[in-house]
Amino acid sequence: MARQDRAIRTRRICLEAAAEIFDECGYEGASIAAILERAGLTRGALYFHFSSKEELARGVLAEAVTAEGVMPQPLKLQEWVDTALLLAHRLPREPVLSASIRLSADPRARGLLGTRWPDWIALGRDLIAEAKARGEVMPHVDPLVASRVTVASWTGVQLVSGSQPDAPALVDDIVALFALLLPGIAVPAVLARLEVSADRPARLLAQVRAAVPAD
Fold first, then answer.
1. Is pTM, for the whole model, over 0.85?
2. Which pLDDT score, from 0 to 100, does residue 1 have?
3. C-alpha span between 130 and 127 (Å, rounded)
4. Among 13, 21, 119, 163, fewest CB within 10 Å belongs to which?
């Protein structure tokens, strides 16, 4: 068991080091040597888990679509909003998530590896569709179109925000984005009940993590 735990930790160290380098340098600019130096591991330890830079990048992308912190809510539309807010809160703090955006936006990496945008779109589509079935969403809203446009807008906000030294925190900009989008999606009675605030994701994560038993 101890050996298995070490292997899991080593794999995680490899992924996080690779993510940091991909995020800083892009796919083309990243090198195995730089990743090894950042990880503080031997080449053999890295190659035990990942055979190439491409496989490391695929490993980063494989972990990109996570919904940590999203809790069941009385309104399904709140769960959709929470998913976007939590990602905005976590992304600056989690290099694997940040690198997944950088890799998806990089034309060379995108052509080689694909992206996880279709998965995020599908996740949002399903949540909006369920919300619509519950009467939370305006009749004219197409869940797939709403999700696709929101994912594109979220990504654009992140890319622009990340390039501006004086920009607000990403979660603040995503709150502003939803303030613009939601009046065209949610029925008025539901819109008034939705909580869209910059401090909500931190509170949700604290609740989830407090419920996890300590080792």
1. no
2. 44
3. 5
4. 163
